[in-house]
Amino acid sequence: MTWLRPLPTVSPGNEPFFAGLAQRKFHVLKCRACGDLNWTPYPACRSCLSIQQDWFEVSGRGTLYTWTVVHTGPKAFTQEGPYVFAFAKLAEGPRPLIVMGNLMGCDHDAIKVDMPIRIAYRDVPGHDVTLYHFEPA
C-alpha cells in the first residue's frame, strides 16, 4: 500500500519525540522549574514560561475528551474516511494533558466521552517514521 498522507517533519526540536515513538514510547515536555507537563511541544512552559524543559515519558493511558467523525476529509485522507479525530485527556496531571489524534479500532457507535483509551503506534510502510493514534483501552 502506498502511503498518501503527509508525513511529519522531524527537526532538532521534536526529534526526541519521534525517536520515542519508534520505541513505542510517548513523550511530552516537562518543565524543570514548575514540574508541569506540556503538549504540544513549545519552546517555553505554558504555565511559568520557563525554557528549561526535558522530554518525559507518559503512560499513554487516558480517557476520551471529545471527538468527531470526519466523513469527507482532505484529499490525502479520503481513503481513510470516515475516520475519527479525537482529543484525549492523558492520565498524567496535575493540569489536564490533552493530546489530539485519530481514534482507531472501534465502532463509531460505541464511542463515548470518558471512555478509556491508550496510545498505540504504527510504522509507516516504506518510511523511517512511527506515528501514534488512540485505541480503546
Notes on the protein architecture:
The chain contains one helix and eight strands. The model has no long low-confidence stretch (mean pLDDT 91). The chain is globular and about 45 Å long. The longest helix is centred in the first third of the chain and has 8 residues, at 15-22. It is 6% helix and 39% strand. The chain has one domain (15-136). The protein has 137 residues and is mainly beta. The strands form two sheets. A five-stranded antiparallel beta sheet has the order 6-5-4-7-8. A three-stranded antiparallel beta sheet has the order 2-1-3.
SSE blueprint:
Blueprint (H helix, E strand, L loop, with lengths): L14 H8 L3 E6 L5 E2 L14 E6 L2 E10 L12 E8 L6 E7 L12 E8 L6 E7 L1
Antiparallel strand pairs: 1-2, 1-3, 4-5, 4-7, 5-6, 7-8
